[in-house]
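dumping the sequnces here before i forget
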Amino acid sequence: MPVLLFAEASEGVFKKPIFEAATFAYDLAQKLGTDLQAVTVGPVDAAAATGLGAYGVSKVHQVLGDSFVNAAFASAVAKVAESIDAKAVVMAQTYNGRAIAPRVAVKLSAAALSGLITVPDPAAGFDTTRMAYSGKGVEELKVNADQMVITVKTNGYKVEEHPVATTLVEVSNFSSNDVDAVALELIKAAEGISLTEAETVVSAGRGMKGPENWAMIEELASLLGAATACSKPVSDMDWRPHHEHVGQTGIQISPTLYIAIGISGAIQHLAGVSSSKNIVVINKDPEAPFFKIADFGIVGDLFDVVPQLIASLKSRVG
Amino acid sequence: MLKILVCISHVPDTTTKIQFEGDGSKLNKTGVTFIINPYCEYGLSRAIGFQEEGKKVAITALCVGGPEVEPTLRRALAIGADDAVRINADATDAGFVAKQIANYCNGKEFDVIFTGKESIDFNGSLVPGMLAEYLESSFVSYATHMDIADPESMTAQVKREVDGGEEVMEVPLPAVISCQKGIAEWRIPNMRGIMGARKKPLSVVSPNESLELVATVQFSYPPAKGNCQYFQPEDVSKLVDSLTNKGLV
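..and the predicted 3d for all of it:
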């Protein structure tokens, strides 16, 4: 019973969350003593498909076609999972992954596990862990089913390569008669680094005093190759777009480096960012709760500190 | 008449300092205020919005939980749901919850089923998709906008968040719609709503037998942080040194 990776393509190629899920799936296959295969749905660049071999994928099942939404995606993934009798289906916790995984789980009567951060241990009832309570708790789970459908937390598993030779197989005769929504149009977000995938995030809050002061945040982010984010009050006041809001009711992220500027660190904000691996806090209030979970802190006026930070980084880039 | 079901999760308030029982088996509920999951509340608000647009709607609020969730359902009634249903079982495994809701929906012909994009306790984001699959209905996840231009047409116009942007969709009803910020604004119940909520029907339904495929073993706390290394404002370059040494910049 192999492990099946759903390799979700965006514009024909794969992004980092897929490689995280692939590494997770490989490690699970190793623990089970089985091999790792993948399924792609829709148009995928041939070189990208073959490239999955670098992550230990020995066979790629390609379901061709170009108009898939949740239900048809899920049918295609479930069909391949059934055809190879997959022990587990693993996918990234992208927007699509979150929509598709639960449907595949129901189709396969499998246990659904979302946002995992450790590989289930076959020797201990497939014991595994995930974050719960918006990052305030860790939940340990056990699986009471023969099959699992898993999503892997984005930025939650380290990518490693395990090169093997890979073959591509076309899945013919796939047709879906699922009733579902029809996508009419994709409104692309402004070009930039995806907040959920970013290694580094520069985030700013009410301490910025107004939207006109954001140029330095954007400059700092661009120097660091970082995505920009903001606190809830800032997006509520329309200083910044809603899609930049990180926190309990916004986007939850876990970058390698999170730089919080002029954000006090209300518990709802921390819930969205506390699983960041390194946190830098710049705030003029030494009592700001954010310092309690920070790795590095500067108590000072952000309008002094941030320009210095930019100058210091620029001097090093040379 | 649009029949709308709003699925509600009963969750600790967003400001709760999360503490578990000593053995880690479950949340320590002492002193914890419970609320309507904020994302579910977006669905409730959107449902009421249809009513305000002059559409004929009937809004049922549903929660899977023990008697302790009834104040949360009463709040949904105060905000504007017409009636409430409690499925009398602990909401643990997502598959179990989805199955219970699907069983309840059977034969009731709801046109729209709203859920939150996720609950703020388990954050699994599994129930909406599982529910759509059990009901074999269309499904839109992470919806940020929804209109029903013509209820007779049995289609909705929905926008949802996807990786890299927003997708505009035409959705055949019935549909499961998981809601997030943007689809509606939260509402504060007025005194009339609060008084009226006491008289609105709240029925209790027994759960069906269903397997729980995933079980919580225990909860623990994330690794403690709090070794903040401070730098003086004039020593920004030393901070950059530290970040550089750790390979972070």
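The longest strand of chain B covers residues 138-147.
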